[in-house]
Amino acid sequence: MRMTLADMYNTPDERNLLDTMKQGIIGKPLDRPEGPLKVTGTATYSAEYKLDGCVEGVLVLADIPQGTVSTIHRDDVVAMPGVLAVLADEAMVRRSTQGTSGKAPAQDVQTVDYFAQPVALVVAETFEQAREAALALKIEYEGAGNPVPFDPESADAEVETPSDSKPVKGGDLEQAMRDAAFAIDVDYDTPGHASAAMEPHATIAEWQDDRLILRGSYQMLAFNVKEIADCLSISPKKVRIIAPYVGGGFGSKLGITHEAVAAAIAAKELGRPVRVVMTRQQVFQTVMRRSETRQRVRLAADAAGKLIGLGHEALVSNLPDEDFAEPVTQATEFLYGGENRLLKVEVARICRMTAGSVRAPGEAVGMQVLEAAMDELAEKAGLDPVELRKRNLPAKVPVEGTPYSSRMLVEALEQGAAQLGWDRRKPSPCQTREGDWWIGMGVASAARVNVMIPAEARVTLNADGTALVETDQTDIGTGTYAILGQIAGEMLGLPISKVRVVLGDTSLPAGAGSGGSFGAISTGSAVMRACEAIRKKLGKKLGCEGDALEITDGMASHGEKQCSLIDLLDGEDMAEIGSIKPGKTFKDFSQASYGAFFAEVGVHAFTGEVRVRRMTGAFGFGRVLNAKTARSQCLGGMVWGIGSALTEELAFDMRDGHLVNHDLAEYHVPVHADVPALDVILLEERDAAASPLQAKGVGELGICGAAGAIANAVYNACGVRVRSFPLTLDKIIPHLPDPFVSPA
Amino acid sequence: MKAFALDHATSAQGAIHALQHGGTVIAGGTNLVDLMKLQIAAPDRVISIRRTELGEMALDGEGLRIGALVTNADCAADMRVREHWPLLAKAILAGASPQLRNRATTGGNLCQRTRCGYFYDTTQACNKRDPGAGCAARSGFNRIHAVLGTSDSCIATYPGDMAVAMLALDAVVLTEGPSGPREIPIAAFHRMPGDDPSRDNVLEAGELITAVRLPAPTGGIQLYRKVRDRASYAFALVSVAVDVTMDQGRIARCALAFGSLGTVPWRDPAVEQVLIGEEPSAALFAKAANVLLKDAKGLGANDFKIPLAARALAATLNEATQAGKA
Amino acid sequence: MGSSIAVAIVNGVPKPLPSDPRRTLLDWLREDLALTGTKKGCDHGQCGACTVLVEGRRINSCLSLAQLHESDTIETIESIGSADNLSALQKAFVTHDGFQCGYCTPGQICSAKAMMQELAEGWASAQTQDLTERPLPTPEELRERMSGNLCRCGAYSNIIAALEDVIASDASLQGAQA
């Protein structure tokens, strides 16, 4: 029999069960269990399944920005060697699906919404045949009657307040700016970003009678099943998705996209499995972009440097009819004080590929700008930037008055400062020169909201004393295999070698999926609750409450009584499904993970090149579930911060909205040489409001503000304040001091 | 990639003979296969020269002869190059990635095509790819484009590093073709776009690069400074190759070449004349930069290359002349 | 041309080369030989995920036509170790968490293996100050030499830590003074 514990998370679970357990593996820096497969190339990614009779599809992209397909010259292409079909089905999708949508995105590829939108699929026996045929396919179009502009700053661009983004207003910001002892009113901009996960989007679609099986690269399978089913007008029950290994996501695989739907339709039509792998260029051009932003930040401080007013307004963009608008001010709402405030986001409707979630939507670009502006305020107020931040942490969230569930920002600032040697920082710029390099340091706070998504997981305690954890939760590099095993092992008193974790298959209970840093706390809590149910039954067998049961290395005990799990189970497996849903704790408390970044950079006195020399991040995100994989998440975020600060920028051509730098040669993600040895400090914390695990999300925290610390360090090094990310050298050299004059 | 026939030549002569019937030579393929996948290059016939004798390096009375098939990696690893022509090794090592350098060849790298985003995108107008189509880059996103040697037809740069060093080292490109062997000074090898950007260099139909010859070492201080958007594995925004010899505190001899600044690897003897015989100083470097950049024209997004080139020139000359004095 | 079928030696076994000259070394390995450990990340030599060793040297298999590899010796990730018998390099990647999603990982490992050989042979890099001396395996050298392998998860620090660990236990790489 299976039972489900009351799943809404309405009151903080203060029992802190994990800390009462005895196995001692939770939080430990254990190796990823799937590591040996990944380092030997034997973990199987979506395009790597060998299916009999599988044929190859290649997407064809529009070479106009807006209009309607009038003619597809199929015949010439169908006659080419190996070509099996040219599809432009009305169920094919024009746009990528936004995360957690659960519904089909805009369909029917007759209409072209943006440059390089997929409009057809060519299927052939081999990849080479399909690729050649796809490039040979001639398509004629009719232009759009009422074109949407390409530039968000264009006077013709319609600007709206997004439906799910209410402005935050409090007091009188204008008056606060007038009353302030120190005021900052600055405009910053950030460019579009690409997720650029290393594995391009790929799907193999196979029909077994009326059932569709997809091997695909997706992040949130329970939603993805509904999305694909909605696209094809079939029941979600008829769809199974298998994705045990996903080669990175970063938001780009939250929702299903072009290749998945096209592959499913083609497989149905041809009666054979069809594989569609997007080219790298297609991924760049069609999946998801992070919107560029223009942000105005107003900071009004009193003579002591305390904020009395805070304004953060952003203009972002998306295609018409898209719900998503980069939530730039998300963390500004709760991070600092200043009761007089105005926070708002507006979205300009433009004709470029779909804008959607890219790692840490909102904070990734909002925090770096807010934190750069805070640096400007610190300078104006004559305060150390660390001190300024510490003075501005409110007791409750401004305007709404919600208490914080937990917040280790002060500890992060202090420990990070000590680690980097912040006391050696010179308060004014251009004081340290090493050879041709100006050296400087910068700080920024980190903050990222904590989110929970409904999740289920099944845990089976096998009669042989091993445990099996099963859920459709994905591991996109996040460490899910490791942490779910550790949670189950800790709760059931088993060494990690006795716990097996199976993920990424929608025939299993629906986990949260990977995104928004919610996978670990949501699905992890479901695993914990399943284990709790098992403990309850075990306790009954031993004659005690579940909570009172002690289990270590498969040996259960209560007081004098002791019995091995194998004996307790007596030949019977014990399976339970645990589940959790976000409840009142998310309304009663402001929940976020916090941290601080400290960066030391060099700026070349002649060329303006910036190199990060050292960087420290200190982070508090509740319980650390695995110190190794959590640290890696933070490291990864900081690398993204380096990219966002220095190199990453989507360049759109304003004449047709096409993406000019649509490959990895010209869209510059950081390489090894851009990244110094990074320090990560994990602050132990417990947060009962965030989850029964006492853990909060960490997957995106490492990027949220990181680029601000680097920009601030650049200013401290060479005195150049660049209010336009990334800080490429062209923006720096006009303002550099004479390179031949060294500091006195 | 269009279907094509692949033939394997076993000698340079065999390759040249095969080329009489049309076709494109493949050596490492690091650029050609990239272009063929996008159908920017779509040859019917591809002739591999990998089995020919062109993979040798040899020192003789005239200098170092580097066979066309010598990989970039092998060239940069060669101790003769490292000791006597370090500029060439430095430039090669600043380019691409170790994997690409292991496959890319001397001859192929000389013929590397531009990285202009409009050349690389077959939905966009490009005179280099499609003569007469127009140039979408001129009024498009042209941050990486040339400020010297441009024309109304084309503003694309030659993107490589190796050839920039070779230009400063007075290398000679050795070829063989239907009308016999040729020795082409590298300064005359790459073509400015003019009104025919489709031809990047002066190679005639059926003509094959067999080697590059470096003349005797100069013994100068040799530096290659590549300025780019990330620390490695990126094309240059501007690069500077310097070979300078100091004598009693003055610049006795110097050679300077620039990459990603012009449409071709760029060398201007007038710049060197400004420097020779003078004591190095910030003012002198600025004077040299003014001569170099007097005709430079930006189109907005690439305007910064003009001050950047001046700054990179100053930084590199400063370092080289300091080292030369020591 | 001779009548014998052209082969390349892949992980020690002769394998007939594909008939379509368009097929890249990468697609041949992945599709015809089912050696999917070698990954396709960009297909244009811009990410390094497809790195394999040809005649002991690392190359981007995506930019090489399979038919150009007649008689070549090719080593892929599958030859470096197996899940129950990891090489020292692979173990170090696991211990130091030198990967997250795992997609760039086989390329990083193949690249690192060849990189160590290059170091042992004294090859210089853009980080090497004096080209006439044998380079030391400093972190800066390792980062420059590994820069042809992108990792979007950002595991770079851990990868370098793994390499330093392996290098520290390999006498041939300590001999940089030689």
TrEMBL record, chain A:
UniProt KW Oxidoreductase keyword: yes
Organism: Novosphingobium taihuense
Domain Aldehyde oxidase/xanthine dehydrogenase a/b hammerhead span(s) in chain numbering: 40-145
EC nos: 1.17.1.4
Protein's name in the database: Xanthine dehydrogenase YagR molybdenum-binding subunit
Catalytic EC class: oxidoreductase
Record has Kinase as a keyword: no
Keywords (A to Z) from UniProt: Oxidoreductase
InterPro entries: Ald_Oxase/Xan_DH_a/b, Ald_Oxase/Xan_DH_a/b_sf, Ald_Oxase/xanthine_DH-like, AldOxase/xan_DH_MoCoBD1, AldOxase/xan_DH_MoCoBD2, AldOxase/xan_DH_Mopterin-bd_sf
Region (Disordered): 147-171
Stored Gene3D superfamilies: Aldehyde oxidase/xanthine dehydrogenase, a/b hammerhead (3.90.1170.50), Aldehyde oxidase/xanthine dehydrogenase, molybdopterin binding domain (3.30.365.10)
Gene Ontology MF annotations: iron ion binding; xanthine dehydrogenase activity
Automatic annotation (TrEMBL), chain B:
SUPFAM superfamilies: CO dehydrogenase flavoprotein C-terminal domain-like, FAD-binding/transporter-associated domain-like
The keyword Zinc is annotated on this UniProt entry: no
The UniProt record lists the keyword Oxidoreductase: yes
GO molecular function terms listed in the Swiss-Prot or TrEMBL record: FAD binding; xanthine dehydrogenase activity
Domain annotation FAD-binding PCMH-type: ranges: 1-219
EC number: 1.17.1.4
InterPro entries per record: CO_DH_flav_C, CO_DH_flav_C_dom_sf, Diverse_Substr_Oxidored, FAD-bd_PCMH, FAD-bd_PCMH-like_sf, FAD-bd_PCMH_sub1, FAD-bd_PCMH_sub2, Mopterin_DH_FAD-bd
UniProt KW keywords: FAD, Flavoprotein, Oxidoreductase
First-level EC class: oxidoreductase
Pfam families, alphabetized: CO_deh_flav_C, FAD_binding_5
Protein name per the record: Xanthine dehydrogenase YagS FAD-binding subunit
Organism field: Novosphingobium taihuense
Automatic annotation (TrEMBL), chain C:
GO MF terms held by the record: 2 iron, 2 sulfur cluster binding; metal ion binding; oxidoreductase activity, acting on the aldehyde or oxo group of donors
UniProt-listed InterPro entries: 2Fe-2S-bd, 2Fe-2S-bd_dom_sf, 2Fe-2S_ferredoxin-like_sf, 2Fe-2S_ferredoxin-type, 2Fe2S_fd_BS, Aldehyde_Oxdr_Iron-Sulfur, Beta-grasp_dom_sf
Domain 2Fe-2S ferredoxin-type: 3-80
Keyword line: 2Fe-2S, Iron, Iron-sulfur, Metal-binding, Oxidoreductase
Protein name listed in UniProt: Xanthine dehydrogenase YagT iron-sulfur-binding subunit
Pfam families: Fer2, Fer2_2
Keyword Iron-sulfur belongs to the record: yes
Coiled-coil segments: none
